[in-house]
Amino acid sequence: MGENSSTKARHVLLLSVAIGVVLLALAIGLGVGLSVRSSDRAGQQEEKLVILDVDPGIDDAIAMMMVLSQPAVRVLAVTCVKGNAREVQMASRNALRILQAAGRMDVPVYVGSSLQLMGHDVYDHTYWNGADGLGDVPDTSPPDYSLINQTEHAVLTLIRMSKAFPNQITLIALGPLTNVALARRMDPDISSRFKEIIIMGGNIRGVGNMDIAAEFNFWMDPEAAQVVLREYKCPMKVVPWEVCQEHGLEWDFFSSWLSVDTPKARFIRDITYNLTQTLQHDGMLTYDSCDPLATAVAMDNALAQTVSNVYATVETKGEFTRAQMVPDWGGLSQKSPNIDVMQNLDMTRYKELLIEAVA
């Protein structure tokens, strides 16, 4: 009887040990699982909400491709403004062509401002982008242009979406700032509802590409640029013309980049063909692409290796300096900085984003 009790006790002890081992293993496994799942969550990028305000435009096409290629980015809308394309309806059609080439017809397109704030228009649109804005390439399979939203003006779209997603939207402004300025005029509170605004435009050393001291986007609508820089209160990052000149793409890279056989690469290769032939014939050593640089800054906060926080405004009355962006480098105005000027960009990372854009 004592021997049986001893045997039973040993069995109970072994069973208890076995159960303990199993429970310990389950606990460790559960802990590992929780750790992995937490790690997975931590590794996931937060979704970036973006509106593209554009005037397509060859450079706009490349920039749009870059944004649309990023899985962590949700493009809420493309709002169009008169600029590179001679009229805003053409800009809107070009935007739809780009979305079709990118396979992203789910993104809505809205028609915006057809005239600058003061109504002037003296630009010959044909040299850089061609008569149609996209290199004069025949569109053999045009998209359904009835998809362009004609019922809500792009300015109203900016206001509506900024209310629906307050302090969540990155507005990437790659054309004249007419839409953005008009949104401020219609709804003053919008000035603080964007998470940030990324602007391709202006200059920091008085170097012009349209006039002696004026960059194209600001030159097209200086009053709008002045409104935006002076009156918006959200963070604003500016990629100016001189910085774009300093970060051109070597022709060897440009050719290799577009040599991949994808619909996106073929589209960019086609629309840039006439322009690149002209630039190379004229002896340009690099392809100076502006809008994609601004977009790259929006996609990767670490891209700019030098950031200058400064107050800047826009000259609207000068005889020789109209539309020049004037940074107060010495702080003489005693005004609080209103923009971050992006400089010394990481070209390796920039090229990586370009490659992803046409994959």
From TrEMBL:
CDD domains: nuc_hydro_CeIAG
Pfam families for the chain: IU_nuc_hydro
UniProt xrefs under InterPro entries: I/U_nuclsd_hydro_CS (IPR015910), Inosine/uridine_hydrolase_dom (IPR001910), IUN_hydrolase (IPR052775), Ribo_hydro-like (IPR036452)
Membrane-traversing stretches: 12-36
Cited PROSITE patterns: IUNH
Molecular functions (GO terms): hydrolase activity, hydrolyzing N-glycosyl compounds
Keywords: Glycosidase, Hydrolase, Membrane, Transmembrane, Transmembrane helix
Inosine/uridine-preferring nucleoside hydrolase domain boundaries: 50-351
Keyword DNA damage applies: no
Disulfide bond keyword on record: no
Top-level taxonomic group: Eukaryota
PANTHER family attached to this UniProt entry: SI:CH211-201H21.5 (PTHR46190:SF1), SI:CH211-201H21.5-RELATED (PTHR46190)
Family: Belongs to the IUNH family.
Name this polypeptide is given: Uncharacterized protein C1683.06c-like
